[in-house]
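Record type: monomer structure entry
Structure origin: computed from sequence
Chain ID: A
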Amino acid sequence: MFNRFWRIGTAALLSAALLLAGCTSSKPSGSNAQGGGEGAAKPAENVKLTLWYWAESDAPGANDWMKETIQKYQQAHPNVQVDLVIQSTDTLAATFQAAAAAKSGPDIAMQWATMPVLSQVWAGAVAPLSDYVPQDELKHWLNLNENEYQGKQWAGSLYLIGVPLVYNKDLFKKAGLDPEKPPQTWEDFEKALAALKAKGITPIGMGNKDGYTGAWMFSNLGIQELDSTDELKQAVLSGQDLGNPKFTGWYQRLNDLVKKGYFNNDVASLDLTQGWKLFPSGKVAMSWTTDGNLSQWIKDMGEDKIGIMKTPVFGKGKLSQVFNATQSISLFLTSWSPHKEEAAKFIQYLHDGERLQAWYNRTGVFPADDRFDPNNIKSPVLRRLWDLETHGSQVWLENYIPPDIDGNGDLAAGQVILSKNGGPADAVGIWKRAAEAWKLQHPDEVDNYKNWVTK
């Protein structure tokens, strides 16, 4: 979700294809003949599963958790071997596209939720998870609606990620603001920003060298005039409708924040991770961040110094009141895997009660399962975040735009604004051109996207 990057060149695809040579999926190994007298119990077939895995960037500690999980699973299922292949953020999409073209590679793979998953479903690279995991199990997994299509569940959730606006209570006090009553409306937000700057405090610290802060602003601000995600889908299909202020008028608000100096001066030269370092060092008053970072900042700064809030509201759309949680990265079965049933059993094991608690202990990020006991969340700040992520409605708007438009429209438009190299009109133009290019270059995906829109 939060480190997705979809501008994939030919060179990247070629490099990804070359990686497949050492990562091919095993073929069925046939029956094991040991102890094979007539009438004897047939030993379980030896199975090798290849898992392409990404989560560490969202949830530090996720890699160690997965290694431990595989070890425990293999001990309980000695006939199953799970080969773990850690994926890079920058090549996650390109590498899988190469695998799908070759119909070789992982048995279990991961892509960010919704459009990145569904685009692979439409390409025939994904098998329905709901054909292999029973509904009485799936009903416990959170945010599955993000990967649902034509009555099938195509990918499973592992953890939740939300993006609260985190603030430093001490710096709020210094600016004469009430740290126990953070702004809820955009008008009060702008007043708070002005008060902080007047005291020589940088109000917001972020990094957008990689384009992700701009994408986050789309998900947090671009949603506020919408009544449904289908409105956005229809605008994407038309292309020209993206010029309607309902969809892109929020760039004027972002532009105002930049022009008034409410972001750190080097926001365009720092990447997202570098920008995050400003908040725990006390150099900025606020930052949009993820669960894992928030958990670490509480440890670094102390619970009493940190507060969280939803992004202040200016819009009148029905979605202006939702929170922005998502399942982020999603697990799915590849259509070419010869071991779909065994792979599905391993995915289901990731939701074992002991594994859910171990995940939280390792990462500080909430597992996407309603069987996780929130009483295990000892921090009041994190408990507040859990409530935001699991009560009411949650939408991460970036999930609902095609990958090409995400990279060439969403990320690119935000960079123009945050680098001060253009204004709202330039951002709108970038979105329109990206939508038109997508329609020309991906006609099959466009047709499937049309079918996805609720009639």
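Annotation 1: The chain has a mean pLDDT of 91.
Annotation 2: Residues 424-441 form the longest helix (18 residues).
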